[in-house]
């Protein structure tokens, strides 16, 4: 279990983690989401003592990281910036980590096997591809067989097989009763992997819920309309807005209309003589729910209206 109470971090004038209070329970995969710069990595870094909070605390099974006798045996972490010795082999890298944490040497082979790096154990880490580096980072997190695991963007650089492998690994670690806390930008992947979600924006807690609760609470009914002629798309968009319907043009030939019956949109298009190439209801995905929730807390927007 990871417990945050009023966790706060400032860089200069800016509060990048703002009074976060939530718990990450064992036996579940908890996804950690938020726009770029929301404060996810900083929160994770504070959890493993790499950054100090200005206020509040974060506890691993009730203890601060600094109080853990053998930290790697209690919490394993894959963080974005890996400090790897490029000239050292994968096996030696893990062995050095094991030795300094009182972890038996046999765990090195087990961890390498779990992540599929046994055959390249003797290869220098500096020669690893991005995906192999990620796998080695995951092996490092698993090395001490800890009950709490934290992964910052674990699928970064992995091919589709690797992505699926990470998903299955996260699920099986949670099924073993471990606490699994994982950040990702890939919403479709999170929808398949996570049981619970914690969403932050500009350092503040936006949501802490099960995946289903989150989608239900943050999605609206949406009708997608495809209109091949841009001038007609604009015409239909204006007509829908005049009728008080919220719309969003999402492409050269597509608009979304919210909280309206599909028949109403079809009838309005027919009245205007607008030719349609598609008209249908959209089922809410995590991505849509996430976009709805975080639209106002994107730090560096693209300038395109959300
Ligand atoms: N060492 C630092 N010095 C100053 N500002 C920092 C430092 N580390 C992070 N920040 C700032 O803190 C904010 C949060 O950054 P953080 O990396 O925690 O966000 P994130 O949610 O992990 O983002 P991303 O999804 O882009 O990885 C950003 O505005 C970032 O610029």
UniProtKB/TrEMBL annotation:
Domain of life: Bacteria
Classification via PANTHER family: ABC TRANSPORTER, ATP-BINDING PROTEIN (PTHR43335)
Record keyword Plastid present: no
InterPro entries assigned: AAA+_ATPase, ABC_transporter-like_ATP-bd, P-loop_NTPase
Keywords: ATP-binding, Nucleotide-binding, Transport
Keyword Repeat (UniProt): no
Protein name: ATP-binding cassette domain-containing protein
Species assigned in the record: Amycolatopsis samaneae
Similarity section: Belongs to the ABC transporter superfamily.
Domain ABC transporter, residue spans: 2-227
Molecular function per GO: ATP binding
Coiled-coil region: none
